Amino acid sequence: MKGKKLAAFILVFLLAFIPLLACSNDEKASGDGKNGNKIELEFWTINLKKNFNDYIQGMISDYEKANPNVKIKWVDVPGADASKKFLTSLQSKKVPDVVNLASSDISMIQQYNVLSPINKLVSKDELNAYIPGLIDSLTFQDELQGLPWYYGGPPIGTINTEIYKKAGLDADNPPKTWEESLKNGKLIHEKLPKVYGSNDLPGIEVFVSQGLPILNDDHTKAVFNSDEHVKFVQMFVDGYKNGAIAPGAVTKDDRQLQQTYENKQQAQAGQSVAAALLNLEKNAPNEITKIKVTKPVTGGDGTIAVKAIQTFVVPKKSEHPKEAAKFALFVTNAKNQLDFAKIVPIFPSTTETLEDPFFKESKGKTIHDEARKIMVETAPHLKVNILGIKDEEKLRDYYTEQIRAAMMGELSAKEALDKSVDYWNQALKNQK
Amino acid sequence: MAVHQVETNIHQKVKVSIKQKKKKKFNYVPYVFLLPAIVLLLVFEYLPTINAFYYSFTEYHILSPAEWTGLQNYKMMMEDEKFWIALGNSMKYFVITVPMLITLPLFLAILVNRTIKGITLFRVIYYLPVVTAMVAVAIVWKYLYHPTGLINAALHGMGWDHANINWLLNKKTALPAVSMLEAWKAAGFYMLIYLAGLQTVSKELIEAAKIDGASKVRILWHVYLPQLRPVFAVTVVMATLGTVQMFTSIYVMTGGGPLDSTMSLPLYIYQKAFVEFDMGYATAMGMVLWLILMVLTIINYKLSRGGQSIQ
User: Fold this and answer.
1) Which residues in chain B have Cβ-Cβ distances shorter than 8 Å to A88?
2) Which domain holds residue A174?
3) Over the stretch B97-150, which tens digit does the pLDDT of each residue have?
4) How does the record say this protein sits in the membrane (chain B) (predicted)?
5) What predicted TM-score, i.e. pTM, was given to this entire model?
6) How far is CA A352 from CA A335, A360, A380, B39, in A?
């Protein structure tokens, strides 16, 4: 009887406390790479396992063969959760060693001083392999926060040739400026009421390509509410009213637009990422045949700005920062990026990759080759628009929300820009 | 006399033995069996709540240590326009959705309470949305609400040629549209609760009312509804808690837009906590949400007289 009671007690206690064991920290340290102890590097990517498992796994195997003392543990995290998961992991004792983050996340995370400066982990010569503009955009107070990897590349323009033809427009003469693009969009909607021009909004990057400043020279004040800025935004507001811009363009999640090429309600895109063609090819194989890739719509001098690139960061808490940086260098080297670019239309961050005949002598067989050719042509005019200010993402979101309000007629273009500038200036004042 | 003596003796003996037992043994067995649940609740519910209460008085951004700022977060909340918009929207969801969740499922329950052929199938059909994932349902409803979606097509079919409503991108229609989805999805669940309640209603009372010549409406009003009072107490409290905490449908369908017109307080808390990582401020808003839910629950409970049925 006593034995039974004791057993019952033990069982109850186990039931109560076993679930809590899961809450403990996994403090199992990896080896030091000496005496046969393998160093384990935890390597995070964003949403790549599904489509690029063989490519990533192949790279890992090559690296492990060349570095027998290193074992790579690959973890692929969903896109929307990457920065959240990373920040949460930093709270624990076991942190990932090499983490793929978008540069927009770096601008948010760098204020917490949790990332190892890459320029202290690798040599200057090794960094010379990368496009200098990209290294500069990721450097904050002389510390390189991340190693540039791939990005969508310069945006491309696209038009639906069938819709252009139906509207009486010449698809071989695509719009070059926003004025032309919005004019075409208006005409298309007038002739084909169920079709709209595009989903283009005047995002903050569009100001850069228009040659309009965002901040003053010493980054202490926002200046995007001048008469020129207002006039430029007003052009889009008018476009939203006359159908040059689709009604669904103001949707908060730009991955869930209402009027698209897929549902035949979109005629053109002034600036789009080349990777969007892959989705279109998958979702609407009949529609992609009607799409023509063009140079992106831009301002007078042809400057193009992109918002973010993919990077690799090494957390300060990593047990093996040097080895982690070495592996990040390997993943982002010219050869590996060229291999990656061959399976997906991405743009590499290394200059040597761009010199390869694959980029230089693109024959333009498929729509993706065509896109790549245009991206290479546009590359010299490219800027990565990282402002390097605290809460940058929050400020950008606030700006976009005011633009949406202007498009929907809740605010005038001037009120929307004034409101954004006030909000930005308040935030910039607190950063001093 | 003798019998009385014996009875008293027995009574005293029993009393003494109970006292002795009480002194001798404290019955810990029930507490031991409660322990697993208590430990889990304590670790995953109460400790985080107490922690959150503390963090609501701090500036805390996850990576840097929390700094005590006193009532700063609460003061900021009073001046935060977006907080008031989100709170107002949560109240709008409450006002629109709760009446729907209290009345519509009741009628559904009355319908499926009939003993007709194939009634189980109807019960299953009405209940099906409850067991379907909200994310999947919300995506499907997004297509229904599309300007060229089924709802506008149906309106066109009914002769309203100008029906070109962009349900989820119009400030006036987005919030009611999301509320409709919530009510539709949860209706089956509340129907089941009402159905269980309807089946406990005393048949004698219904018979008596019929003999007295009461009409169906009067039977519903004077017999069914008073007896369902405990069920109403449950549904009102649950519907209130559910609607004020609405999150998934809004997150998937509108992301809080257009122009914050569907932003609920839980979604705003999520954005502050997991997009901007302002945990201190988010927990302070969480505390306010908790307080609001407590007050609403108490009011509901009092109004339904503690769920006591009228016999």
Assistant:
1) 62
2) 160-306+383-430
3) 999 999 999 999 998 888 888 888 888 999 999 999 999 999 999 999 988 889
4) Multi-pass membrane protein
5) 0.80
6) 9, 11, 15, 59
